[in-house]
Amino acid sequence: MNVLDAGCGSGEFCALALERGASVSGIERRPPGMLAIARRRAPQADLREGDITALPYADDAFDVVTASTPSSFTADVPATIAELARRVRRPSPSATGARAAS
Questions:
Q1: Could you report the per-residue pLDDT of 6-40, keeping only the tens digit for each?
Q2: Are the C-beta atoms of residues 35 and 47 closer than 8 Å to each other?
Q3: If DSSP codes are grouped into helix, strand and coil, which group holds residue 27?
Q4: What is the DSSP string of 77-99?
Q5: What is the distance, to the nearest Å, from the Cα of residue 74 to the centroid of all Cα atoms in its chain?
């Protein structure tokens, strides 16, 4: 299973997903110190600095995309959710965080 944690913060979810056998990617726009913590917690994950409103991943690249907190802090929540949903192979409200937009 390919998982993207958009706004991965300190990598807690990434580490949990790796423990369960997922192939994990994460993106975080906070200062590099946060990403350094995530890299220590989830060393096998593909972790990148970036913005969840312009994801550097191909469409349909992931089975699951999570964005529990950062999607609430974007200027355009519906557009951000659409950006996240494009990366999911089989979009569903629970996989894209669409519940947060309602």
A1: 999 999 999 999 999 999 999 998 777 999 999 99
A2: yes
A3: strand
A4: HHHHHHHHHTTBSS--HHHHTGG
A5: 14
